[in-house]
C-alpha cells in the first residue's frame, strides 16, 4: 500500500470477488481476456499513476497553468506523464482492437483511469477528457470523423474537450446561444463563447478536438434546438495532416480553488470569420448525443471523487499509525509514552467513516461500470434492457453520492492530521480542494436530484426502480441467513421501507399534478436514496467477506473482518439518518418552497 | 446589507431583542453606556471592517506573507488596516476605562471583533491574538506586567501571540518540552521550539509579546508541570523603552490552505543563550492560567466561524437574487425568460440551511458572551456561579458547532454559485478554505467532545447540565402558548428527551468505570448536543419574532416572519437527525472502539 492510491486487497476484492468482473469475460467481446490480462492492465495503470502522475501532483497545484502571450504555459512534468500514459495504450483501454484499443471491460478500464485520478487528478484531466470526447465521436460520429479525429485521440496524439457551458446559461443548457452557420461544403462556421472548458488550450498534444454544443439557424428554442459539432484547433486534411489554425481563440484562464492542474479556459469561437466545425450526428439531436455519453462520464466523476477520498483515507490511516500523540482515556500517568493516534476511539471512528465512504463509493461506481458492459454486451435483449434501465436509475446516485461523501472523507482526513492537515506540507488539504469541484461539474447535486426523482424513479412505469428494490430484497434475504448480518439487514430493510413510502407519497403528488411541490426536496431524496444504495452495497460486501472468512477468497482474514465491521458501522451510524429524511419526504414538506425572497 | 458582512436587522435583533444586551447596562461596570454608545461602537467596527479590512481580504490570500532574509514580508494594506483599527480604540473594547479601554459589554466587544473577522479573518488575526494575549496578562499578570506589556498591547503598539503547540506534542499539551531556567534576577531563560504560532513574527507593531507555555526544572510531568511565561521580541526597559532583541528566532513560515493572511510561524526560543522570559502567575499553574482565558478565546473561534459563514451566506443570497438561470419546474416553454436562482426550491433550501446555521450560530455565540458578563458582574454570587457553570458547559459547543455547520454553510454558498463558486473570481471559495481551520485550532472537535462529555456534563454533579435543561423546558412551555410554535416545541422536546436518555446511559457507563467505552462517541454527542442547544436558540428567536410580529420590535414583519420559518426549518430538517444519534449513544455503541488497526 506504499503508493497510497488504493489498498490492493480492496481493489482485488471489489473487482474479482464482489463484482466478479470475470463473468463479463463470457461476453464475446472479452473472449481474449483473462484474470491475468485484466490484472496486467491494472498493474500498468497503477505503476504509471505512482511513478509518473503522483510525484508532480502538488507541483501543478502550486504552479498552475499560466496565460502568457496567448498561450497556456504549464509544468513540463504534465506532458511527460501524459506521453508515458499515451505509450501504454491505456487511453484506448475500452476501445476496439481494430482501432488500436485494448478492449478491456468497462469496470477495468474505468478503474485504470481512476487510479490516475487518485494519483494526480489535475494531470489526469487532459487524458480523461480526451477519452470521453473520443468515445463520443466513436458512438455518434461518421466513419470519416472516427478515423480522422477519434483514432488520433485514442492514440494520444490529439486531445479533446467538451464545450457545453456558456456564461449566460450555466446549468441551463437550453439557453445556450453559440450558433453554427451552414457552409456550401457541408461544414459549419461557429460563433460564440464557452466557459469552464477544461483543457481548452495547451501544447500537450498535436491538436485539440473540441466537442461543441451550438444552434443551427433553424433550431427551435430550448434543449430541442441544440446540435453537436466537432471543432478542431488545427484543421485536419483528408490525409490526416494538420492544416491551418482554426478560429478558436483562448480568451483567458479561470483560476480555481483546486483541480488546478487541469487548466480551465474561456474560449471564443469565431472572433474572425467563424470557427470551422462539423456536425456530429443529426441536427438538433446534440443534447441526446452528448447525454448518450453522460452515464459513463458521470461514473467517471463519481469514481474521481472516490479516488480522491481513497488516497486521503490512506494518507490519514498511515499518519494515524505513525504519529504518536496523547494517551488512552483513563491513562493518568503522563510519564508513559504517547500512543499512536489510531489508538484513540475518535480517530478510529473518523477512519471508519472514511473507509465506509470510499470503499462504499468504489463499490457503487464499479456496480455502474458492470452495468455499462451488461447493457452493451449481455446475451439477451431483456438482460441488456434491464441493465440499461438500472444504469439510468443509478447514474445520478453514482455521480453525486461519492462527490458528497468522499469529499467528507477528505475533510475527515484533514481532521485526523490535526493542524498538519491544514498546511500545504501535507497532501490532504489539496485532495479536499480538488474534490470540492465534483459536486458541481457534470450536473450539480440539484440537477442530479431532479434527474433521479423527476425522471429516473418513475421511468418506464417505475420498472427500473422496482428492479433495484427486488435486487435489494434478494440481498436482504441472503444476508438474513447469516447471524452476523441480520442486524445490518434489518436496518437496511427499515431504511428501504421508509424510502419506499416516501417514493409512493411523492409519486402520488406528481400524479396530482403538483410537480414543483413533489420535487421541492429532490436533493434530499437523492442523498437518502444514495445512502440506501450504498448500504445495500455494504451488505453485499459483508456477504462476500463472510465467504472469504469461510475460506472462499484470496484476501486476509483481517481484511474480510474489516469489511464486515464497516458494514455494521454503515448501517448503525449512517443509515438511520435516512429515516428522518424519508419522513420529511413522505410528508412532502414545503418549508423551503414556501419561503419567499423577502424573508431571507 | 451592501457590505455583505452581516444583516443589520439581524444584528440589532440578536443583540437588542433576543439577548437584550441592554439588561447588562444595569451592572455598575456599564452604567455609562446606553443603547446609543453600544450602537456607536458597532457602527464604528462595521465601518472599519467594510472600509479597511474587507477590500484587501482576497489580496492577502493571494499574496500571503513571505519569509525573506529572516523577516516576514507582507502586503502594506495589513498594517494600514490595523493602524486604523488601533486608532479607533477597539482593541481595548472590553477593557477598563483607566487602562484606555471602552468598557463595553462582552457581547458587543465580541461582536465588534466578529465584524472584522467576517470582513477579513487574515488581517483580523493579528488584532485578535493581541487582544487575547493582553486579556491574559490583565487577568494573570502582575501590575508591572500589565503596565509594561498589556497596556501597549491594548493601545495597539505591541502585538501578542499564544505559544502552546510543539511539534512532538500537538494537542497533547502535557507532552510539551520547552524549558525555562530560573536566573538570579528573577527572570527565566527559555529553550525550545513552538509551531503554528500565528502572528509569530512581523513588522506590524513596535514589539511582539509571546505568551509561552514551558516547564520549570522541577516541574512534574504532564499538564501539572506547565508554567506560563511572557517573552517579548524586544526587551522592554523599566521606563517602557525598547531594549535589545531577545533570543527568539523565526525558524520558518507554515503555509496553509486558508487563513493565509495570518502568518503561521515556527519559533525557536533560545538558539543562543536563552530567550529572556518572565513568569506569569504561579509556577506549574500555566495551563490553568491559559484555560482561564479559553472560554473567551473559544467564543472567539466560534464567532469567527459564524462570521465566515455569515458573509458567505450574504454573498450567496445576493448571487441567487441577481443571477438568472433556468425556469421553474413545470415551465416547459424555453422561450420564456430565465428566472433568478432564488426561485428554485433547492436554492431556497440551501439558503435556508445557511441562514439556520449562521444566525443560529450567532445566537449561540452571543449567548456565551452574555454569560461572560453575568459570570463577572451579575448582582449575586448565585447568579454569577450559575452563569459561570453554564458558560463552562456551553463553551465546547460554542467552539465546535459553528466550526462544523458554518463551514457547511460556506460549502452551500459555493454550491449556490455553481461553477463560479469554485473559482477564485468569487470570494466564497476563500471563506470555505479559511473556515476549515476552525474545527482544528483551539481544540479539535475530538478534544471538545471529550471536554463536554468527559467533564462538563457531569461537572458539579450535573448541576450546570440540569440548569440548561431547566431553561430549555421553560422555553418549551412558553412556546407551547403559541399555535405557530407548538410543532417546533414538540420536535425539540423529543430531541431533548432522546439526548437526556443518552446522557443518563453514558453517565451510568462512566459510573461503572468504563470510561473509554462511555466516551467512545463523544464527538457525536457533542454534535447532537449542539443541535439541541441551537434548536433551543431558534425556538427563542421564533418566540421573540412573534413578539415582533405583534408590534413589539423594531424590525420589519418580513424579517420576523423569516425567523419563525427558519425555526420551523431547523426543527423539521435538522433536529430529527439528533434522534438517531441519540439512540446510538444511548446504546453506548462500541463499533469504532472495537475496530482494530489490522482491519482497516
UniProtKB/TrEMBL annotation, chains A, B:
InterPro entries: Acyl-CoA_dh-like_C_dom (IPR025878), Acyl-CoA_Oxase/DH_mid-dom (IPR006091), Acyl-CoA_Oxase/DH_mid-dom_sf (IPR046373), AcylCo_DH-like_C (IPR036250), AcylCo_DH/oxidase_C (IPR009075), AcylCoA_DH/ox_N (IPR013786), AcylCoA_DH/ox_N_sf (IPR037069), AcylCoA_DH/oxidase_NM_dom_sf (IPR009100). Residues 37-156 form the Acyl-CoA dehydrogenase/oxidase N-terminal domain. Its cofactor is FAD. Keywords: FAD, Flavoprotein, Oxidoreductase. The keyword Flavoprotein applies. Residues 162-269 form the Acyl-CoA oxidase/dehydrogenase middle domain. It holds the Pfam family Acyl-CoA_dh_N. Residues 285-450 form the Acyl-CoA dehydrogenase/oxidase C-terminal domain. Residues 469-595 form the Acetyl-CoA dehydrogenase-like C-terminal domain. Belongs to the acyl-CoA dehydrogenase family. PANTHER family: ACYL-COA DEHYDROGENASE (PTHR42803), ACYL-COA DEHYDROGENASE-RELATED (PTHR42803:SF3). This is Acyl-CoA dehydrogenase. It comes from Marinobacter albus.
Amino acid at each position: 500500500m506504499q503508493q497510497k492510491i488504493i489498498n490492493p486487497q480492496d481493489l482485488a476484492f471489489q473487482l474479482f470477488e464482489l463484482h466478479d468482473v470475470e463473468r463479463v469475460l463470457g461476453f464475446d467481446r472479452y473472449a481474449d481476456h483473462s484474470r491475468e490480462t485484466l490484472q496486467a492492465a491494472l498493474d500498468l495503470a497503477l505503476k504509471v499513476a505512482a511513478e509518473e502522475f503522483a510525484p508532480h501532483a502538488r507541483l501543478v497545484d502550486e504552479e498552475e497553468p499560466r496565460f502568457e502571450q496567448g498561450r497556456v504555459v504549464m509544468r513540463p512534468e504534465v506532458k511527460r506523464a501524459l506521453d508515458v500514459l499515451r505509450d501504454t495504450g491505456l487511453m484506448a483501454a475500452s476501445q476496439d482492437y481494430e482501432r488500436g484499443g485494448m478492449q478491456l471491460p468497462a469496470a477495468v478500464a474505468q478503474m485504470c483511469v481512476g487510479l490516475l485520478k487518485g494519483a494526480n487528478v489535475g494531470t489526469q484531466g487532459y487524458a480523461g477528457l480526451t477519452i470521453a470526447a473520443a468515445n463520443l465521436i466513436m458512438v455518434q460520429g461518421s466513419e470519416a470523423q472516427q478515423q480522422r479525429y477519434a483514432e488520433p485521440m485514442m492514440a494520444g496524439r490529439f486531445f479533446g474537450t467538451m464545450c457545453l457551458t456558456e456564461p449566460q446559461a450555466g446549468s441551463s443548457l437550453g439557453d445556450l446561444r453559440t450558433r453554427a452557420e451552414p457552409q456550401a461544403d457541408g461544414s459549419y462556421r461557429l460563433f460564440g463563447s464557452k466557459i469552464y472548458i477544461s483543457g481548452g488550450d495547451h501544447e500537450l498534444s498535436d491538436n485539440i478536438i473540441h466537442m461543441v454544443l451550438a444552434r443551427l439557424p433553424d433550431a427551435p428554442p430550448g434543449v430541442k434546438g441544440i446540435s453537436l459539432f466537432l471543432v478542431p484547433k488545427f484543421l485536419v486534411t483528408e490525409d490526416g495532416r494538420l492544416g491551418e489554425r482554426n478560429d478558436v481563440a483562448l480568451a483567458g484562464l479561470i483560476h480555481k480553488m483546486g483541480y488546478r492542474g487541469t487548466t480551465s479556459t474561456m474560449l471564443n469561437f469565431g472572433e474572425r470569420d467563424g470557427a470551422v466545425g462539423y456536425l456530429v450526428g443529426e441536427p438538433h439531436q446534440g443534447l441526446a448525443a452528448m447525454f448518450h455519453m453522460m452515464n459513463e462520464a458521470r461514473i467517471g466523476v463519481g469514481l474521481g471523487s472516490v479516488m480522491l477520498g481513497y488516497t486521503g483515507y490512506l494518507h490519514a490511516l498511515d499518519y494515524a499509525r505513525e504519529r504518536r500523540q496523547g494517551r488512552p482515556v483513563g491513562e493518568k500517568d503522563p510519564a508513559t509514552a504517547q500512543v499512536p493516534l489510531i489508538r484513540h476511539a475518535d480517530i478510529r471512528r473518523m477512519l471508519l467513516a472514511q473507509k465506509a465512504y470510499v470503499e462504499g463509493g468504489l463499490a457503487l461506481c464499479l456496480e455502474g461500470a458492470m452495468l455499462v458492459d451488461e447493457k452493451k454486451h449481455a446475451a439477451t435483449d431483456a438482460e441488456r434492457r434491464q441493465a440499461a434501465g438500472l444504469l439510468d436509475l443509478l447514474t445520478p446516485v453514482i455521480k453525486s453520492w461519492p462527490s458528497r461523501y468522499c469529499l467528507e472523507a477528505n475533510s475527515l482526513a484533514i481532521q485526523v492530521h490535526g493542524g498538519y492537515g491544514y498546511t500545504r506540507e501535507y497532501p490532504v488539504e489539496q485532495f479536499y480542494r480538488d474534490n470540492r469541484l465534483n459536486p458541481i461539474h457534470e450536473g450539480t447535486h440539484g440537477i442530479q436530484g431532479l434527474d433521479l426523482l423527476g425522471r429516473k424513479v418513475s421511468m418506464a412505469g417505475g420498472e427500473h426502480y422496482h428492479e433495484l428494490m427486488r435486487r435489494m430484497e434478494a440481498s436482504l434475504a441472503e444476508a438474513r441467513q447469516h447471524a452476523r448480518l441480520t442486524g445490518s439487514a434489518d436496518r437496511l430493510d427499515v431504511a428501504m421501507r421508509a424510502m419506499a413510502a416516501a417514493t409512493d407519497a411523492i409519486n402520488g403528488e406528481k400524479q396530482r399534478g403538483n410537480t414543483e411541490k413533489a420535487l421541492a426536496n429532490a436533493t434530499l431524496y437523492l442523498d437518502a436514496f444514495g445512502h440506501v444504495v450504498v448500504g445495500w452495497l455494504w451488505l453485499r460486501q459483508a456477504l462476500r467477506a463472510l465467504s472469504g472468512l469461510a475460506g472462499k477468497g484470496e484476501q486476509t482474514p483481517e481484511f474480510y473482518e474489516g469489511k464486515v465491521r464497516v458494514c455494521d458501522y454503515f448501517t448503525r451510524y449512517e443509515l438511520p439518518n435516512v429515516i428522518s429524511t424519508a419522513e420529511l419526504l413522505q410528508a412532502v414538506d414545503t418549508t423551503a418552497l414556501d419561503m419567499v425572497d423577502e424573508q431571507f
